[in-house]
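Revision sheet: structure tokens.
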Amino acid sequence: MWRLIAMVLFVLGLVAPATPCFAQAAGHVRVKIVKAGLLVGGGAGSGTLTYRGKTYPFTISGLSFGITAGATIGRFDGWASGIGEVRDFAGTYSSVGGGFALVGGVNGVHLRNEKGVTIVLQGPKAGLELAANISAITIALR
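Predicted:
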């Protein structure tokens, strides 16, 4: 009896249609951002997303509200996860954080958009900035 059950399960495994893999791959992100502000900050930049062997350029812009003073230039590297399709990467991201840079420093940021894509970036920045704020960042694929 056990042999018959094992044989039926084996045959069903062979004839059952294969289900496609809907696993979400991570993408590598590179960004250059120039920021300046006093109370309300603003920034703009550009970057690339490398996802499943292809490179997609994008623009980034944003505003921060809270305590912001100074100006910095930052170059960040990191990963984007939760991407089902490339178009999911574009959107409005939110972040709550703070930081300090004097001439040079290292900064990190954790962002999430309305489609569930999460970006974690880290890298050096140069300039003078003191920030404790809430940021809204918009990414648009080119």
